[in-house]
Amino acid sequence: MAPRGAYHHGDLAAAAVDEALRLIDADASASFSLRALAERLGVAHRALYNHFADREALLAGVAARGFDMLADALVIAPDAPSFLAAYVRFALARPGLYDVMMARRHTAINGDPGLRAAVDRVIGAAVKGLATPGADDETQRREVMRIWMIAHGGIGLQRARMLRLRSDAEFAEEILRIAGF
Amino acid sequence: MAPRGAYHHGDLAAAAVDEALRLIDADASASFSLRALAERLGVAHRALYNHFADREALLAGVAARGFDMLADALVIAPDAPSFLAAYVRFALARPGLYDVMMARRHTAINGDPGLRAAVDRVIGAAVKGLATPGADDETQRREVMRIWMIAHGGIGLQRARMLRLRSDAEFAEEILRIAGF
DNA sequence: TTAGCGATGTATCCACTGGATACATCAGCG
DNA sequence: CGCTGATGTATCCAGTGGATACATCGCTAA
After folding, report:
1. Which domain holds residue B26?
2. HTH tetR-type domain: which residues (chains A, B) (predicted)?
3. Does a structural domain hold residue B1?
């Protein structure tokens, strides 16, 4: 909307999402305060409310950007095993962001068109990246769900250290075997 | 420790965990404040700090109780499909509690002996409930991980409405097929 | 050219939160 | 029977998300 030297700040909405991503990555959770975020942007904390209805709306913006980045990481996977590996790598590299993405509720996803579109990009990448030629649609759909469940569940359990594995590297190897690759 | 008419309140620690469970179930998240909890117990909010170091310690207590209840729900499952079904039923019936259980970090689980023991009860139930006779230990271990990943991941994706299924009932049916049962 | 309007940002306030410090109460043991 | 340590209370604090009122200034229409 405001490409260059626009008004007071430029494009505060985008800058806020950028900075929020940095803060989230920094301590692997979305525990930052709006005030800390605003201070880093050199702006009164209330200025953010001109672009986001509330904290939740800002996080929805962060989630949308996260799904976009995830889709970028997934579309280049040449086959199912590398697809799964790329997904796991993304989630373990940016755990705070992954949490924000996955914590968004149904209403948020369907309410925010940008967020919905980004999620759909990821789903599209999954359908293509996990396609098994010759299988009917129902089977393909189920295979996407199966891999996604194993990936998402494995990530959560590994992060909670419930699997008793020695390292993330060992986990990355193990999950491929478990998925049947 | 304080069985009957003990001191001022009786057993505030246990009562606090009970009441926290109610609040968590009520709005499907652990968003309650210590003050609201204390008020319901008829006690100054600071009294809780005589039993829990901080909010996180209280939630660790809640998580321990959650794992105990989950283990109770799992040990009676006669075979692998009913085990999976029971796990999913528990998590979808008490989403707030399930989140609290799964959000506990490595340090919390290993630091609190009660929590650790409760987690081990669940793992023990899984190993028994999912046992496939005649398979070697490594295979059994991997099968436990596979089902747990599918269950935990499926639950998370279903709750975020990422799977595009019509209802929790449909999900419960679908996940059994996906697990290969 | 300029008036003023709407978008953006600021100043200040509020109720509420988790947590800290200091003190009061009282069960049970010597 | 008096002391002590466990338990609970009173009060304070800085920090939080959010609200209301106002200031700034680019853009557009006359």
Report:
1. 6-52
2. 10-70
3. no
Reduce the DSSP state of residue A69 to 3 states and report it. helix
Q: Which pLDDT score is estimated for A8?
A: 63
User: In this structure, are B174 and B163 located in the same domain?
Assistant: yes
The percent of residues above 90 in pLDDT, for chain A, comes to 88
**Residue pLDDT, tens place only, A68-126:** 999 999 999 999 999 999 999 999 999 999 999 999 888 888 888 999 999 999 999 99
CA torsion sign for B97, B100, B106, B108 is: negative
Residues with CB under 7 A from strand C: A 1-2, 7-10, 12, 43-47, 50-51; B 6-8, 32-36, 45-46, 49, 54-56
Q: Does A53 touch chain B (CB under 8 A)?
A: no
Residues A97 and A39 in one domain: no
Place B165 in a pLDDT band, splitting at 50, 70 and 90: very high
* pLDDT tens digits along A6-45: 346 678 999 999 999 999 999 999 999 999 999 999 999 9
The reply to whether A108 and A70 lie within a common domain is: yes
CA angle, residues B39, B116, B34, in degrees to nearest 5? 15
Q: Do A80 and A147 form a contact (C-beta atoms < 8 A)?
A: yes
Q: Residue A7 is part of a domain; what is its CATH number?
A: 1.10.10
Same domain, B18 and B89: no
Which nucleotide lies nearest residue B32, CA to C1'?
Answer: C17
Residues B104 and B24 in one domain: no
Size of interface A-B (CB pairs under 8 A): 83
Please judge whether A146 and B178 are an interchain contact, meaning their C-beta atoms are less than 8 angstroms apart. Answer: yes
Return the half-sphere exposure (C-beta side, CA atoms, 13 A cut-off) of residue B159.
24
The structural domain count of chain A equals 2
Q: What is the dihedral of CA B26, A95, A29, B18, to 10 degrees?
A: 30
